[in-house]
Amino acid sequence: MSEPQSAHDRRDPVPPATPRRLRPAELLFEPAQALADEEHFFDLESLDDPRQLLARSTELALAFRAAADRATEYQAIAAAQLADPRRFDRLTFAAIAEQSGWTEDYAKKMVEFGTRLQER
């Protein structure tokens, strides 16, 4: 007889070994007037309930992390495309590093990462 599945296992069809993409929280655009106020940040300063503040700030932190991870993947893909030896105008690791503000070593790693991402 097989072991019973937990409620989490039944509702989550993604196997645990497969990384799940976090979906960014909705980032509400702030009015121009609020942007001038350096203390204003996604209306967090107006929340009086610490539970709400923790929930919303956690949601924003996760959204920003997910967005940063996704942007990094796109950087890697672009770097791999720019370094592709099939391109007549391909860039060297040094040129990619200079353009993006990376070290040459990091540019090489990003090209390798981007190549792997494109192969998926």
How many strands appear in the DSSP assignment?
Answer: 0
Class by SSE composition: mainly alpha
H and E string: HHHHH
Number of helices: 5
Assembly state = single chain
Uncertain residue segments: 1-18
Mean pLDDT: 79
Shape: elongated
How can the largest sheet be summarized? Answer: none
Distance between the termini: 37 Å
Helix percentage range: 55-70%
The Rg value, from CA coordinates, equals: 21 Å
User: Hey, roughly how much beta strand do the residues contain?
Assistant: under 5%
Describe the structure.
The longest helix is centred in the middle third of the chain and has 34 residues. 57% of the residues lie in helices and 0% in strands. It is mainly α and 120 residues long. The two termini are 37 Å apart. Helix 3 crosses helix 5 and helix 4 crosses helix 5.
Brief overview:
The protein has 120 residues and is mostly helical. It is 57% helix and 0% strand.
Question: What is the topology?
Answer:
Blueprint: H1 7-11, H2 32-36, H3 50-83, H4 93-100, H5 104-119
Helix pairs in contact: 3-5, 4-5
Essential attributes:
disordered N terminus; elongated; mainly alpha; 120 residues
